[in-house]
């Protein structure tokens, strides 16, 4: 009960023990099955199951997958309090921590001083997967001034949204020797050097905040030649930023990914609208070049999927032409609506 009393104030629900006398069939279920059911709930909902039956009172505290959703709270203050009370009080071995960091009922937002203790606790609890998704705020989350939190011998999946990614961050990823799945969504990327011999899946998307901060600045568009090889990368998923300077960022990454098997290119409607208003739109994506194109082979690349909102998105056909000029042989290429994304 102490865990329940600490957590419930953040949910706004009473902690009364009163129960009606009725057959309790739930209590007959084994712990493993009840915990499996809770995996499909956010932690707030899981905590609320404590009032269903005495049988459920402390089961939520055994969850190894924690999903926190700020949208279910009336304010960011109550969300912070709930996370602190329910996740930091009693260390339990974890598999995954996922934070949905947008509260639709509040203009307030999280900063990194809020999130850092949660990340540190999860990784100290041997979490294998960590996600900060749907974060919004005036500036990207910056980890400067804090000890690098992602030092872990267990972390193999990391997903970050609206974070600042710099050289310090990239260099310290070596502290995660089994990390093979990295997803950067709408992040401000300021790295000048990046390579990995471990990554098998890399996602870099920047779909709706490019006007707010430099998501992929000059370094990624001009200095990719300095990047190392991604020797084990099998899946590459790129967003709007790839369609610049003859898809130069895309071509460079493909040349440095000898094991790649599938490429997903995600073009959003906002970018298509901007394309339609540009006077020299085609040249923005595929500028004229007097030099001969040097073809290369990605021997293991079998699938290229271009996802867009409209099947007649003109950018998709231009990108297909660029890929055709560089890749030999050309793998299977399909253009699909963005809602059918399958990675």
From TrEMBL:
Database matches in InterPro entries: F-box-like_dom_sf, F-box_AtFBL13-like, F-box_dom, F-box_SCFL_complex_component, LRR_dom_sf
Organism: Urochloa decumbens
All copies of domain F-box, residue ranges: 23-76
Name of the protein in question: F-box domain-containing protein
Domain of life: Eukaryota
CDD domains: F-box_AtFBL13-like
Region of interest (Disordered), residue spans: 1-24
